Amino acid sequence: MESPHLIFLRNAVSGQTVPVVPLRDALHRLDHMLTSLAGDLRIPYAGPYVGLGQMTRQHQLCIAEHQWSAQERGWGVAICVSHPVHGWRAEWRLATVSRERLPLIVQALPALFAGYAAAADASPAAQRPSTKRIHEIAGIFAH
């Protein structure tokens, strides 16, 4: 049986209307899951753009080792500034984006997982259990 938060997010991706508080909770849980998987795989990946308005390419979902504060550094997913000068500077975690950006994050999940699964397949970590799990999650969002 699959994780309820993944099923909830799949339903949100498919256009089902979902309340904001449970959506943020599901994204928080997904963030936690990805932190574990990305920490095991250690494969950086620049995912889909999630910028707003006229600045559609200003932010993107990135899986990398992020520096959140002077004390907190770790692998995971973040909404990052995509400007070449700043590299992939983490701005927000999945669940902490503005209400306006929230639908963009949800709609970007299938592309994020499909792309990350492909990146994992092309890496030395292709046979790891974490890669298999990324493929399973990508499959959930593909249907």
- Uncertain segments are none
Overall 3D geometry?
A: globular
Overall pLDDT metric: 92
Order of helices and strands: HHEEEEHH
Range of helix content: 40-55%
End-to-end gap: 16 Å
The total of helices stands at 4
SS class = alpha+beta
What's the gyration radius in Å? Answer: 14 Å
How many individual β-strands?
A: 4
Strand content: 15-25%
Largest sheet: 4 strands, antiparallel
> Strand order across the biggest sheet?
1-2-3-4
What this model shows, in words?
- 46% of the residues lie in helices and 19% in strands.
- The chain has 4 helices and 4 strands; from the N terminus they run H-H-E-E-E-E-H-H.
- It has a 4-stranded antiparallel β-sheet.
- A hairpin with a 7-residue loop joins strand 3 (73-81) and strand 4.
- The longest helix is centred in the N-terminal third of the chain and has 22 residues, at 20-41.
- The chain is globular, with a radius of gyration of 14 Å.
